[in-house]
Design brief:
Strand content: 25-35%
Number of helices: 2
Oligomer: single chain
Number of domains: 1
Order of helices and strands: HEEEEEHEEEEEE
Helix content: 10-25%
Largest sheet: 5 strands, antiparallel
């Protein structure tokens, strides 16, 4: 009987080792294919044409020589060619204000940069569509535009507006300030 108890204990120990977390015990497993096919990523590209700067009188200006004063509104107009491929593609058009920078660390340059960044905006109107007539203007947002893009090539007239308000508090701080607009651009960001 002593031998039988020892054999039972030894067998239980072996079974415990085989069923443990580090053993080779496994339940049955199998796989089945699901219906599928190749999938291809879409694209979102944008290209800007030559643009024109004008002031509030709609006169063309040379932005490099222009001296902005309170009450001025400057606009930059260009054509934007957008290529959008994607079944659920949406994008946000905005001004890349990070490229609107003071020319130095002087108080005047920083003051003008602050004003112009605060009062720079963008608008756009669809001009033409490669596959069909132009559609309505995109939905307006807070200093940006939300596009429900359709697949294909679309052209928009984009207008960037920079305003120096006539009654801006502490606008004297911006006198003689200088801001670099040479890298100012618009960006189209895909979103969900």
């Amino acid at each position: 009987m002593n031998r039988m108890i020892k054999g039972f204990i030894a067998g239980a120990a072996v079974a415990a080792l085989l069923l443990g977390g580090s053993g080779t015990f496994a339940l049955w497993i199998d796989t089945a294919a699901v219906a599928g096919a190749d999938i291809t990523a879409g694209t979102l590209t944008v290209k800007a044409g030559e643009g024109v700067w004008t002031d509030q009188t709609e006169a063309a200006i040379n932005i490099a020589d222009y001296r902005i004063v309170p009450g001025d509104t400057l606009t930059y107009q260009t054509l934007l060619d957008v290529e959008a491929l994607g079944d659920n593609i949406k994008a946000l058009l905005s001004v890349d204000k990070g490229q609107l920078t003071a020319n130095s660390d002087s108080a005047e340059d920083k003051a003008l940069e602050k004003i112009l960044k605060e009062y720079t905006d963008v608008s756009a109107v669809e001009v033409s569509r490669h596959e069909g007539p132009a559609g309505p203007a995109p939905v307006r947002g807070d200093q940006s535009i939300d596009f429900e893009l359709l697949q294909g090539s679309v052209q928009y007239q984009v207008i960037v507006t920079i305003t120096f308000p006539a009654e801006y508090e502490d606008d004297d701080a911006a006198k003689t300030g200088s801001v670099n607009l040479s890298e100012l651009g618009v960006k189209l960001t895909q979103h969900l």
